[in-house]
Amino acid sequence: MITASMICVPSIASAAPATPAPAPSSPAPAAPAPEKKDALAGKTVFLDPGHQGSAAGHDLRKQVADGRGGKKDCQTTGATGVNKAAEHTVNWDVVSLVKAGLESQGAKVVLSRPDDTGWGGCVDERAAAANASKADVAVSVHADSTSAAADPAKKGFHIIVPQLPVPDATVSAVQATTGRTAANLMRDAFLKAGFPGANYAGVVNGIQTRADIAAVNLTKVPAVFIEMGNLSNPQEADALAAKSGQVKYAVAIIDGIVKYLLSTPSANRLSPSLPQGSQNSPATGETPAAPNANGIDLSGLQAIVPLIGQLIDSKDPTAILTLLQGQGQDASSQILKSLLSVVYSIFGGKLPF
After folding, report:
1. Cα dihedral 146→150→155→158 (10° resolution)
2. Is 35 in contact with 334 (CB distance < 8 Å)?
3. What is the pLDDT of residues 51-69, one digit of tens each?
4. Among 35, 103, 125, 227, the one annotated catalytic
5. What pLDDT, on a 0 to 100 scale, did the predictor assign at position 17?
6. Dist CA 240 CA 231 (whole Å)
7. Which residue segments constitute the domains of the chain, with CATH numbers given?
8. Amino acid 303: pLDDT
9. Is 236 a catalytic residue?
10. CB neighbours of 336 closer than 8 A, spacing ≥ 6?
């Protein structure tokens, strides 16, 4: 973020006034106070890092509700990249960064699974956990795979939205309105970050409509289902597995979540009594909050993502600390510190703040 200290103002030589001295000027305005770390206070985000570290003792093929009146497998192991990266670990690593960034701004974050070593629950259980959390938004994070072999022609992210209507009227109402708004804002955040929309599987401008995703068919809070990239594409697989790439994905996800949370009224979930396609309206005379109304602007953070990547790839904690010591107290700086705290811990250290 550009601060006053970064702006040079030419000095003016003093000289005796030719006319009577003017009246004393008004005091200079006080410097803006540091941005508070509570821009997302009162907001709850449910984060679901897809799949699990281990399915020991659990039957992945156990049949559970699919949200369409049918059944589907409880869970899958997740994909493996052409670089041998495990999808469940990629998902976990990115979500860990997103969690830290959101919490730095006061959000409450609920996870679908506590770690990347054990079980994470069937798809219906994760949807139930999202509903029980009463989250303002639920975000499932995955990485796609189109082939066991390298598939460099297919690339890009996509956001999966449910084919409507869904049998559950509440799910239909939520996902047709606030859920779709959240999905579109996440798509926009990925595009702004430089990620291309997927060029396969019928994806249109970063959005894919499907009927078979229980995570959204069963979720009664606004749901966003992300496929960050294609692990069968060698370039994307490397980006998804690298800490520098994961920071870039995390920043895009944080940006999408923040824009949604700050562009919707506090009561952003639909009442079960509302018909499909309806949504809560602000009280008379009340204007819905504008995006980034509380001043969170991640454009500066996105601009230095390449530098962050270089620092992470260098595995030089001293360089990371040097960067952090020059940061201010705006939201981008706070989020940057939280992200690098997660990365720094991988090096065995703990940042001094």
Report:
1. 30
2. yes
3. 999 999 999 999 999 999 9
4. 227
5. 42
6. 8
7. 44-279+287-295 (3.40.630.40)
8. 75
9. no
10. 301, 304, 308, 324, 327
Please state, in angstroms and rounded to a whole number, the distance separating the CA atoms of residues 331 and 5: 18
Rounded CA separation 75/343 (Å)? 29
Cα R_g (the chain), whole angstroms: 23
Model confidence at 305: pLDDT above 90:
no
From residue 130, alpha-carbon distances to 133, 179, 221 in Å are: 5, 13, 7
DSSP alpha helices (H): ranges in 43-111?
A: 87-103
**Using CA atoms, how far apart are residues 225 and 159, in angstroms rounded to an integer?**
6
- 254's CB contacts (< 8 A; 6+ apart) are 98, 101, 102, 298, 335
Mean of the per-residue pLDDT values of the chain: 82
Q: Which of 181, 206, 190 is nearest to 291 (CA)?
A: 181
| Two tokens, residue 186 | 């996440």
Higher pLDDT pick, 237 / 332: 237
Q: How many CA atoms lie within 13 A of 353 on its CB side?
A: 18
| The pLDDT value given to residue 3 | 33
pLDDT tens readout for residues 122-169: 999 999 999 999 999 999 999 999 999 999 999 999 999 999 999 999
> Which pair of structure tokens corresponds to residue 268?
């952003």
Q: What is residue 344's DSSP assignment?
A: H
Comparing CA positions, the residue from 64, 56, 178, 208 lying closest to residue 124 is 64
Q: State the residue for tokens 């996800």.
A: 253
For residue 20, give the DSSP letter.
Answer: P
For residue 7, name the pLDDT band (cuts at 50, 70, 90).
Answer: very low
